[in-house]
Amino acid sequence: MDKIIIDGNRPLKGKVKISGAKNAALPILAATLLTHGKMELHNIPQLADIKTMVALLKGMGLKISSWANKMKVQSNGYAGTTAPYELVKTMRASILVLGPLLAMRGKAKVSLPGGCAIGARPIDLHLKGLEAMGAKIKVEHGYVEAEARKLKGAKIYFDQVSVTGTENLLMAATQAHGTTLLENAAREPEIIDLANMLVACGAKISGAGTSLIQIEGPTPLTGCKWSVMPDRIEAGTFMIAACLPKSQIMVQGIHPEDLEALIVKLEECGAKIEISSEGIQVKAPKKIKSRDINTAPFPGFATDLQAQFMALMTVAEGSSLIRENIFENRFMHVGELVRMGADIKVEGNSAIVRGLKQLSGAPIMATDLRASACLVIAGLAAEGITEISRVYHIDRGYEKIEKKFRKLGAKIKRVKVKY
Ligand code: UD1
């Protein structure tokens, strides 16, 4: 198992190139199940979650070859319909194969993802939507089994905004007969990327990026060449790190409009932000001001950046109230930050952070993907040595994170540990 070791309290300076978005690449890979012909995908990040999705798709009969950040995907003729527990348990987003499998192969058997560190994360909205489109669904022995000879278009209202729920139904609807309307759909930029890729393959979709998406089906989908959008969460993580004392980072290759809520917040904290054709330049404030955040679906403040923002608030002036409105248990990083000296009190879905001058390095443990990015930022801010264990969490979603921070001047390394 690997550990990341950081000798903190040094300014970060330079340029960082952002990788392709994990949360766009996963649904786009799942969507290749819907296509006939060759797909060529670019800007695919090299991550553990992508490997899991590739393993799932290979088990379902896709031929996948990859080199650098590119992938070619094509059917090999076998039409598997099962997503086994061994793979699904390592990545909840495996549920994204449910809609495409059902739509193309008439049935799907997908292991229930179960809970995860950040909450129960049910999939009832995915199932309700597919039922409305005519699928027969049963949940037995830990698996969802769905069947449909023919899906039909339907009007589906999401009681709660769900990103992968919207994506699953959007993909299935491309093969349903008639019109599908997704109401109160998620508006995340990753949904636009998926929809645009499907349209490039021949799908008829309008409204992606708004809360009402309309899909006309069925349309046979060809292959296409697609470059995955940049990762706004990775970009946001570096932008937050750029607010640490005396730092200045140019974050390259991103879409500034995907990061509005964070840009506004970091400016309120005192950072100087300049947007140019090269990217977003973030210059640290002389003194970081505390600010409150409320996580919300896009375009609100992303829950996937809550933990990293909290790390910054531990060394800000004043107090910050952080409300987590999406996942009930997404404060696992608090205990670890407290081990580094942070002053944080959690009450229900709120955390009150009282800023200190400095954190002190300590041995700590990553608990989930975004929590581990928070701990890296805390380690960079802290005086002394921080050792982060269980970094396999970070490898699920951040490509070469320690190399990227090292290039910015951080003293950070990865070591193999034998237990
Ligand atoms: C996606 C992202 C994840 C991000 C999250 C919220 C991917 C691969 N993952 O996760 O990084 O943190 O969006 O922005 O894109 N819910 C239900 N029933 C359902 C589905 C969801 O109650 O059927 C609830 C969830 O428990 C949660 C909320 O809806 O409280 C939002 O979850 P959702 O948007 O579905 O998250 P994911 O798509 O799993």
Explain the overall architecture.
By secondary structure, this protein is of the alpha/beta class. It folds into two domains: 2-19 and 230-416, Enolpyruvate transferase domain (UDP-n-acetylglucosamine1-carboxyvinyl-transferase, Chain, Alpha-beta prism); 22-227, Alpha-beta prism (UDP-n-acetylglucosamine1-carboxyvinyl-transferase, Chain), CATH 3.65.10. Helices cover 30% and strands 26% of the residues. The chain has helices at residues 22-31, 48-59, 85-88, 98-105, 124-132, 163-173, 189-200, 232-241, 260-268, 306-313, 332-339, 369-381, 392-395, 401-407; strands spanning 2-7, 13-17, 39-42, 62-67, 70-75, 82-83, 107-111, 136-140, 143-147, 155-157, 178-183, 204-206, 212-217, 225-227, 248-252, 272-276, 279-283, 293-294, 319-323, 343-347, 350-354, 363-365, 385-389, 411-416. The protein has a four-stranded mixed sheet with strand order 22-23-1-24, covered by helices on one side. A hairpin with a 2-residue loop joins strand 16 (272-276) and strand 17 (279-283). Helix 5 (124-132) runs parallel beside helix 6 (163-173), helix 6 runs parallel beside helix 7 and helix 10 (306-313) runs parallel beside helix 12. The mean pLDDT is 95. Uridine-diphosphate-N-acetylglucosamine (UD1) binds at residues 23, 26, 92-93, 119, 121-126, 160, 162-165, 303-304, 326-327. Uridine-diphosphate-N-acetylglucosamine binds next to helix 1, helix 5 and helix 6.
